[in-house]
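Annual report, structural modelling task.

Input specification for the zinc ion complex:
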Amino acid sequence: MLSIVQNSDPVLRAKATEVPIADIKSARIRKILKNMTSALETQDDGVAIAAPQIGVSLRIFVVSKAVIEMPAELHKRAEMKDLRELKKRLGYLVFINPVITKLSREKEILDEGCLSVRPLYGRVKRAKKATVTAYDERGTRFTRGAAGLLAQIFQHEADHLDGVLFIDKATNLREMPR
Ligand code: ZN
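The model returned the following structure:
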């Protein structure tokens, strides 16, 4: 089973490199994407993962479409039991070489955790809205705007690609109640 790299690993602190456009549809990248989603599916409460979290220093993150289909439920931890099935069923949004092109001036302070910083949780100030331009797994460039949970995820995952963890920005760090 693929394990998720934990906090002390230097790969989480490196600035990840861009995927050459010509490689996006390669078997190598396809394999990395598969490994990322497989690793994410081992985590009941995880909805997004960045490549450095499986030890690959490339600018890629994926987000479960569950975030778009059922964002309200994702905030209620008690209902996360079925998330593993749901993630498999709904699939993923793929962001290769993502760049945040816009952040709203309006911010909010949100609870945040990370699959690589277990079991800590904290409060992080994030822009309410974010826009990302990236390539999908077919090599098509796209732009996606988001608010709420998805906007928070864009900012968290983009940070991973620059070697930044939420604990660098969080206040009120505490262990997640289980
Ligand atoms: Zn994370």
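The chain has one domain: 10-175.
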